[in-house]
Amino acid sequence: MIRVNIFVEGQTEETFVRELLYNHFLQQNIYVNTILLGGAVTYGKIRRELYRKCSEDSTAFVTTMLDLYGLPKDFPGKSSIPTTNNPFEKAEYLEKQMGVDIGKQNFIPNLLVHEFEGLLYSNPQAFLAWFDQSVVEHLESECKLFPSPEHINDSPITAPSKRILRCCPRYDKPLHGSSIAMDIGLDTIRKQCQHFDKWLTTLENIK
C-alpha cells in the first residue's frame, strides 16, 4: 500500500483529511496519515519537520496542506514571487521553490489557495446547517465576484476567513470548518477548486 504523510496546520485541517480524504484514498490503496504542525511557525521549523519525515522513510511520500495566505516570511521564494493576479501561478511558483529547498524525491509540495476557508465557498448553502439564510446569501453574493473560490483574495481584510467572520462573527473554525466541508462534499470541492483538485489528482497518480 502506498503511504502518504500530510502535514497540516491545525486541527480543522487534520479533521478534514480524516473525514474527507482518508476513505477516499484508502479505496485507491493509498494510506494517508496526518501530521499536525501547529500554527504560527517559521518555515525553518516546517522545513526541519518535512526533511526529517522525507528522510525517515524514502518509500513513503510526504506532502503539505499549508495556506498560501499568511505564509511565514522566511518561506522560500516569497521575496521573489512573480507579480501576477493569477493565484495558481503564485502557488505553483512557491510550491516549486519549496520542493527545490526540501530536495527529496518523495516530497510533493502543496499550498491551499488561498486558505482552508476558501474551500468552504464551494457551496455556501452548506452554512445553512449552522447559520441563517442571510449568511448564505452574503457568501453567495461574494462568490459571484470571483471566477472560483480559489480566487478569493488573500489580504488581511479580504481573505476567505476574514470575509466569513465579517458576515458571521459566530463562525468558529474548529467547530464549523470541517463540518461544513463534509456537508459540501469532496466532489463539489474538487469541481470548484482546481488547484486543490490538481493536488489530489497528483496523489491519486502516485506509482
Describe the overall structure.
There is one protein chain. This protein is of the alpha/beta class and 207 residues long. The protein folds into 2 domains: 2-114 and 192-204, Rossmann fold, CATH 3.40.50; 116-187, no CATH class. Helices cover 48% and strands 12% of the residues. It is built from 9 helices and 5 strands, in the order βαβαβαββαααααα. Strands 1, 2, 3, 4 and 5 form a 5-stranded parallel sheet that branches. Strand 1, helix 1 and strand 2 form a beta-alpha-beta unit. Helix 8 packs across helix 9 (194-204). It is globular, with a radius of gyration of 17 Å. The chain starts with a strand and ends with a helix.
Topology:
Blueprint: E1 2-8, H1 11-26, E2 30-36, H2 43-56, E3 61-67, H3 87-102, E4 107-108, E5 111-112, H4 116-120, H5 133-143, H6 160-167, H7 173-184, H8 186-192, H9 194-204
Parallel strand pairs: 1-2, 1-3, 3-4, 3-5
Helix pairs in contact: 1-7, 8-9
Give a concise summary.
This protein is α/β, with parallel strands linked by helices and 207 residues long.
Helix-strand topology string = EHEHEHEEHHHHHH
CATH class of the largest domain: Alpha Beta
Sheet of most strands: 5 strands, parallel
Count up the domains. Answer: 2
Instruction: Please tally the β strands and state the result.
Output: 5
**Mean of all residue-level pLDDT scores:** 95
Shape: globular
Rg result: 17 Å
The span between the termini is: 10 Å
CATH topology-level fold name of the largest domain: Rossmann fold
Q: How much helicity do the residues have?
A: 40-55%
Tell me the strand percentage band: 5-15%
Q: Which blocks of ≥5 consecutive residues have pLDDT under 50? A: none
- CATH architecture of the largest domain, by name, is 3-Layer(aba) Sandwich
Would you tell me the structural class of the helices and strands? alpha/beta
How many helices in DSSP terms?
9
